[in-house]
Amino acid sequence: QVQLVESGGGLVQPGGSLRLSCAASRSIFSRYVMGWYRQAPGKQRELVTTISPGGSSNYADSVKGRFTISRDNAKNTVYLQMNSLQPEDTAVYYCRAATITTYIWGQGTQVTVSS
Question: Considering all CA atoms of the chain, what is the largest pairwise distance in Å, rounded to the nearest integer?
Answer without folding.
Answer: 42
